[in-house]
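Notebook entry, cofactor series.
This is the third protein in the set we're modelling with a bound small molecule. For this one the ligand is flavin mononucleotide. I'm keeping the input format identical across the series so the outputs can be compared line by line later. Sequence and SMILES below, as received.
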Amino acid sequence: MTDIQNTHVAVLVGSLRAGSVNRKIAEILRDEAPAGVTLDIVDGLDQIPFYNEDIDGADAPATAVALRDRVASADRVLAVTPEYNGTMPAVLNNAIDWLSRPYGAGAIVGKPFGVLGATPTPYGGKWAHGDTARSAGIAGAVVVEDVTVSQSAIDVDPTTDAEVRAKLFAALARLAEFTPTVTAA
Ligand SMILES: Cc1cc2nc3c(=O)[nH]c(=O)nc-3n(C[C@H](O)[C@H](O)[C@H](O)COP(=O)(O)O)c2cc1C
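Returned structure with ligand:
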């Protein structure tokens, strides 16, 4: 394993609930991140209008511009999300849509990307996590292999269980250590 480099990770949380387990996971990762790794939880995703090409461009909503700026200034992106009806929550999908434009030059383009989270089902949100990774990849992010934890929260509290916490921090470390391969043009 290589040393963790100094790196800044923008975090998108898919749940808006005040008591969200996924938000708590994001906060734990932020508060106990390894030295050199800083996490910025991007709040206010619910204040961003649904993506609409008619309102994008020079006059894009300030909330969407703020999202783009926060992600553009990060080195990497981590989504921490539950699953809603077999896929990612709409608020996360909307954020990725805004980050995907302008086409080919969106704030998420080229950023190493990982996704993890927990749900109180046996599957732990794996469809949501698969869909989020696919969507982010199509939007231009570099989806990092093995930075996915789909944790069932039926038998364990993912915020306190030592084994689960170790898995979550290992995923964060893999994202932080990832170095994109530069290919010659
Ligand atoms: C509208 C809705 C749809 C849901 N659909 C799923 C689902 O398809 N799969 C799943 O594992 N959990 C599903 N759940 C349960 C969520 O995973 C659960 O509420 C989770 O704890 C939310 O995460 P949070 O604590 O971070 O808010 C759903 C919850 C809601 C509100």
